[in-house]
Amino acid sequence: VQLQASGGGLVQAGGSLRLSCTASGRTWGDYRLGWFRQAPGKEREFVAATSSGGVTDHADSVKGRFTISTISKDNARDTVYLAMNNLRPEDTAVYYCAMKKGVRLSYYARHYDYWGQGTLVTVSS
Prior knowledge:
- Helices cover about 0% and strands about 55% of the residues.
- With about 120 residues, the chain is mostly beta strands.
- The strands form 2 sheets. Strands 2, 4, 5, 6, 10, 11 and 12 form a 7-stranded mixed β-sheet that branches. Strands 1, 3, 7, 8 and 9 form a 5-stranded antiparallel β-sheet that branches.
Protein backbone atom coordinates (compact mmCIF):
# COMPACT_ATOMS: atom_id res chain seq x y z
CA VAL A 1 0.00 0.00 0.00
CA GLN A 2 1.22 3.47 -0.85
CA LEU A 3 -0.09 6.62 0.76
CA GLN A 4 0.43 10.06 -0.71
CA ALA A 5 -0.36 13.13 1.38
CA SER A 6 -0.50 16.70 0.13
CA GLY A 7 -1.93 20.12 0.90
CA GLY A 8 0.28 21.41 3.67
CA GLY A 9 1.67 24.91 3.73
CA LEU A 10 2.08 28.14 5.62
CA VAL A 11 -1.04 29.89 6.87
CA GLN A 12 -1.83 32.61 9.37
CA ALA A 13 -3.70 31.86 12.56
CA GLY A 14 -7.42 31.69 11.86
CA GLY A 15 -6.83 30.51 8.33
CA SER A 16 -7.73 27.27 6.60
CA LEU A 17 -6.07 24.44 4.73
CA ARG A 18 -7.25 21.21 3.20
CA LEU A 19 -5.08 18.13 3.25
CA SER A 20 -5.60 15.18 0.95
CA CYS A 21 -4.44 11.60 1.18
CA THR A 22 -4.61 9.06 -1.59
CA ALA A 23 -4.01 5.39 -0.91
CA SER A 24 -3.36 2.75 -3.54
CA GLY A 25 -2.69 -0.96 -3.42
CA ARG A 26 -5.24 -1.96 -0.80
CA THR A 27 -6.47 -5.55 -1.19
CA TRP A 28 -8.79 -6.02 1.81
CA GLY A 29 -12.21 -4.64 2.55
CA ASP A 30 -12.39 -3.18 6.04
CA TYR A 31 -9.99 -0.45 7.06
CA ARG A 32 -9.50 2.99 8.57
CA LEU A 33 -7.82 5.89 6.86
CA GLY A 34 -6.79 8.86 8.92
CA TRP A 35 -4.39 11.55 10.00
CA PHE A 36 -1.81 11.90 12.72
CA ARG A 37 0.48 14.82 13.39
CA GLN A 38 3.83 15.31 15.01
CA ALA A 39 5.19 18.59 16.24
CA PRO A 40 8.92 19.08 16.95
CA GLY A 41 9.90 17.36 20.17
CA LYS A 42 6.49 15.77 20.64
CA GLU A 43 5.01 12.35 20.07
CA ARG A 44 2.87 11.58 17.08
CA GLU A 45 -0.76 12.17 17.95
CA PHE A 46 -4.09 11.17 16.49
CA VAL A 47 -6.01 13.86 14.62
CA ALA A 48 -8.91 12.19 12.82
CA ALA A 49 -9.88 9.01 11.02
CA THR A 50 -12.67 7.59 8.93
CA SER A 51 -13.64 3.97 8.42
CA SER A 52 -14.50 2.14 5.24
CA GLY A 53 -18.06 2.14 6.57
CA GLY A 54 -18.15 5.93 6.80
CA VAL A 55 -17.69 6.38 10.55
CA THR A 56 -15.53 9.39 11.39
CA ASP A 57 -13.74 10.34 14.57
CA HIS A 58 -11.80 13.43 15.63
CA ALA A 59 -9.44 14.23 18.46
CA ASP A 60 -10.88 16.54 21.09
CA SER A 61 -8.24 19.14 20.29
CA VAL A 62 -9.55 19.58 16.75
CA LYS A 63 -13.28 18.98 17.14
CA GLY A 64 -15.29 21.82 15.69
CA ARG A 65 -12.33 23.03 13.64
CA PHE A 66 -11.17 20.04 11.58
CA THR A 67 -13.38 17.74 9.55
CA ILE A 68 -12.31 14.50 7.93
CA SER A 69 -14.27 13.40 4.90
CA THR A 70 -15.64 9.98 4.17
CA ILE A 71 -13.53 7.89 1.84
CA SER A 72 -13.85 8.46 -1.87
CA LYS A 73 -13.10 5.36 -3.92
CA ASP A 74 -12.06 5.55 -7.54
CA ASN A 75 -10.14 3.09 -9.69
CA ALA A 76 -8.70 1.14 -6.76
CA ARG A 77 -7.59 4.33 -5.01
CA ASP A 78 -8.97 5.67 -1.77
CA THR A 79 -8.91 9.39 -1.08
CA VAL A 80 -9.70 11.20 2.14
CA TYR A 81 -9.59 14.91 2.91
CA LEU A 82 -8.98 16.81 6.11
CA ALA A 83 -10.50 20.28 6.14
CA MET A 84 -8.75 22.41 8.74
CA ASN A 85 -10.36 25.68 9.76
CA ASN A 86 -9.56 28.28 12.39
CA LEU A 87 -5.99 27.07 12.53
CA ARG A 88 -3.89 27.86 15.56
CA PRO A 89 -0.12 28.06 16.01
CA GLU A 90 -0.31 24.89 18.11
CA ASP A 91 -1.58 23.04 15.04
CA THR A 92 1.86 23.43 13.49
CA ALA A 93 3.20 19.96 12.78
CA VAL A 94 3.98 17.42 10.13
CA TYR A 95 0.71 15.73 9.25
CA TYR A 96 0.84 12.06 8.33
CA CYS A 97 -1.73 10.01 6.50
CA ALA A 98 -2.10 6.46 7.79
CA MET A 99 -4.13 3.34 7.12
CA LYS A 100 -4.96 0.42 9.38
CA LYS A 101 -6.58 -2.88 8.53
CA GLY A 102 -9.98 -3.38 10.15
CA VAL A 103 -12.49 -0.74 11.21
CA ARG A 104 -11.82 -0.82 14.94
CA LEU A 105 -11.10 2.69 16.15
CA SER A 106 -7.64 3.34 17.50
CA TYR A 107 -5.91 6.52 18.57
CA TYR A 108 -2.50 4.87 18.65
CA ALA A 109 -0.02 5.24 15.84
CA ARG A 110 1.37 1.76 16.48
CA HIS A 111 -1.95 0.24 15.40
CA TYR A 112 -1.72 1.75 11.93
CA ASP A 113 -0.06 -0.42 9.32
CA TYR A 114 0.83 1.98 6.51
CA TRP A 115 2.08 5.56 6.49
CA GLY A 116 2.51 8.35 4.00
CA GLN A 117 5.47 10.68 3.86
CA GLY A 118 3.93 13.58 5.77
CA THR A 119 3.07 17.12 4.81
CA LEU A 120 4.13 20.16 6.84
CA VAL A 121 1.54 22.56 8.18
CA THR A 122 2.86 25.80 9.66
CA VAL A 123 0.53 28.24 11.35
CA SER A 124 1.96 31.67 12.11
CA SER A 125 0.64 33.87 14.90
